[in-house]
Specification:
This protein has about 290 residues and is of the alpha/beta class. The chain is built from 8 helices and 12 strands. Strands 1, 4, 5, 6, 7, 8, 9, 10, 11 and 12 form a 10-stranded mixed beta sheet that branches. A two-stranded antiparallel sheet has the order 2-3. About 45% of the residues lie in helices and about 25% in strands.
């Protein structure tokens, strides 16, 4: 039986409505997809902008210039290749890799040189012991490692404990403005401090007889035992020095934030501990998470 147009009209109207709403749903879905793609693309552009901002803030000259003291605590130079290896190199490369730039070592003989270099723009990131005085020139991260400092006594002296060092006539060698110098300047009452400007000069004090004891990081002291026959490192420690990464004051705050985040990531992932273990350091541990 043939339906009349009047009978068919409700079905026709329903079909039209379904097609209309179907097209609306499709258009709405397409609109959401376009909006989502816009958000993702803008996020990528923003991330690229952030990365570029971080590179400019932290490595404005191209390579990341990483400053440190020559010595086992930071990095030592291979006599054959001239290449530096150590904790400062490993962590410096880690920061440079995050930025996508090469790393350039900047080596100093003493902490004073690093602090002077911060003011003249000679480096971008430094690895150095923390102190209130240094914090006036640089912005520190949290520590990435903690270092025991102690005494090395030359052969033939009847000094067996740290307490016996502080006596009249005892000469204690220290690197000027290093952690041991800062601490012992206030702690020693009777012994005399003999200040030098580098680790090589510090080691030479014992060999020349111009010091009876040298005070420094235990990593350095144990490393020097081989060249100082019958010298000995005393038990115990005179202080524990926190070692951190630093950025010169006056930089874009992005630089200090990036370095601080890297240090926390390096501790959390075990990268800091692995660098310490590879260097074979004694009297040194990775610092706890901030």
């Amino acid at each position: 039986m043939k339906e009349t147009r009047e009978e068919m009209q409700p079905l026709i109207d329903q079909d039209i409505r379904q097609r209309h709403y179907g097209m609306e749903d499709s258009m709405r879905a397409i609109g959401w997809l376009i909006a989502l793609m816009g958000v993702l693309l803008s996020g990528c552009v923003s991330a690229q902008g952030t990365n570029e901002q971080t590179r400019q803030a932290l490595a404005p000259n191209g390579p990341l210039r990483v400053a440190f003291l020559a010595g086992p605590l930071y990095a030592t130079q291979d006599a054959g290749t001239g290449e530096f290896k150590g904790v400062a190199i490993d962590l410096g490369r880690g920061i440079a890799a995050r930025l996508g730039v090469p790393m350039q070592p900047v080596v100093y003989p003493n902490p004073g040189g690093i602090m002077a270099g911060a003011k003249t723009g000679e480096w971008d990131v430094a690895f150095i012991g923390m102190s209130a005085e240094r914090a006036t020139a640089v912005d520190f991260s949290a520590p990435y490692m903690e270092v025991e400092q102690g005494y090395l006594v030359r052969a033939g002296l009847p000094i067996t404990t740290a307490a016996e060092v502080d006596r009249p006539g005892v000469r204690v060698g220290v690197i000027e403005k290093a952690g041991a110098d800062v601490f012992l300047s206030g702690a020693l009452k009777s012994a005399t401090l003999v200040r030098v400007r580098s680790t090589d000069e510090l080691a030479a004090l014992l060999a020349s007889g111009n010091a009876d004891v040298i005070a420094a990081t235990k990593a350095f002291l144990f490393g020097r035992l081989a060249s100082q026959p019958d010298a000995r490192v005393l038990d115990g420690r005179i202080l524990v020095e926190p070692i951190a990464a630093a950025v010169p004051k006056g930089r874009d705050p992005t630089a200090a934030r990036e370095v601080a985040q890297f240090v926390e990531d390096a501790k959390r992932s075990g990268q800091a501990k692995s660098a310490i273990d590879r260097a074979g350091l004694r009297g040194v541990v990775a610092a706890p998470l901030n």
